[in-house]
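Input sequence (204 aa), recorded before submission:
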Amino acid sequence: MARILPTLAATKAALTIIAWAINILAMSDADTPQVPPASGDPKLRPADFYRAETYQAEESIGYLMRRILSAVAQAVETRMCEPGSPTFPQWLPLYKLHVGAATTVAELARACELDAGAMTRLLDRLEAKGLCRRVRSLEDRRVVNIELTEEGRAAAKEVPHVLSRVQNEHLAGFTNEEWEQLKGYLRRILDNAQALAARGEKND
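Predicted structure, token format:
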């Protein structure tokens, strides 16, 4: 069981990043059919697609999503291969800061769905690359604000451009309808994952 839990956490993290990244490409289209999102209803019955006696790892949605995320991450980092450029995991906090979604360490951790320790380590790396700096608030010394440097703002502006190019390449051959359906399915899985996590926290 101890080996399974990290895999579940990694799958949830992969789903979150994929859903966020695909939203970078989002365009409204009222004529495109939408897949209804999962309600997170605890009464929903689990699917019966996987069975222990016939289980194959390569058919697992977690395995497939990790493969996709790994391929996207590698392609993104290839596009941004200059020394000091942010790595794929560092792009989300960088972009969140750029669009004003967070200004403090605590806010950024919540926005990126990371714990305080993981957020601190990411900021350490971004700060070492000269992309951001932490500044203690003058009003409340307990609060630490995060500011992007000029280099950080320049790097953040590249995020949607690079992600758009890379994801369009990975979506080659998809119709607009298929793309909208794919996003809907991913969001439904994510809704289920978040509902399961919430129920697990209540039972702790």
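Checked by second reader. Helices lie at 4-23, 61-79, 88-98, 105-111, 116-128, 150-170, 176-203.
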